[in-house]
Design brief:
Elements: E1 9-12, H1 15-25, E2 28-30, E3 35-38, E4 43-51, H2 53-57, E5 65-72, E6 75-81, E7 92-101, E8 111-117, E9 122-127, E10 132-139
Organism: Bradyrhizobium guangdongense
Protein name: DUF2948 domain-containing protein
Pfam family, one: DUF2948
Length: 152
């Protein structure tokens, strides 16, 4: 299978790493039903259909979509704004992810990660320390994303 980029697996432990992940998930499609908050595990998992930006850089006109899972660990609290969890199939467009260190101090491990969506939607995660992972799960043949409930 030529031209298939290897499956991406990125880990972010600081704001610079997170900026890289943010670039890869820009314009990803997320369904509220694929946002899974596991309070007991201090973990948030977001299933998404992301654009393969690296393939676009290789000159492919139409970027393919990949099914990916974005995971945050050591999450103390999770709040959402302008996201209708009662409409689980509504597609949310992820604009990017930001990290705001606690008290604005970079030497503090804790802070808040913000997942920003188009039209003012947002998820705010208060974290003990930043621990985020983006893992590709394969090509998105349908272009809609996929339910990841029950994984792990």
């Amino acid at each position: 299978m030529s031209g298939m980029s290897p499956q991406l697996k990125l880990i972010a432990l600081d704001a610079d790493d997170l900026a890289v992940i943010s670039t890869h998930v820009q314009d990803a499609r997320v369904q509220p039903s694929d946002i899974i908050w596991r309070q007991g595990e201090k973990r948030l998992v977001v299933g998404m259909s992301r654009l393969d930006w690296e393939q676009t850089l290789d000159g492919e006109a139409e970027p393919r979509r990949l099914v990916a899972a974005l995971r945050f660990d050591r999450v103390l609290a999770c709040k959402s704004r302008n996201i209708d969890l009662g409409a689980p199939d509504k597609i949310l467009d992820l604009v990017g992810i930001e990290f705001h260190p606690q008290g604005g101090r970079d030497d503090e491990p804790g802070g808040s990660a913000l997942l920003l969506f188009a039209h003012g939607g947002a998820i705010r995660l208060d974290v003990e320390c930043l621990e985020c992972q983006l893992t590709d799960l394969g090509a998105d043949e349908l272009g809609t994303g996929v339910g990841i409930e029950g994984e792990g």
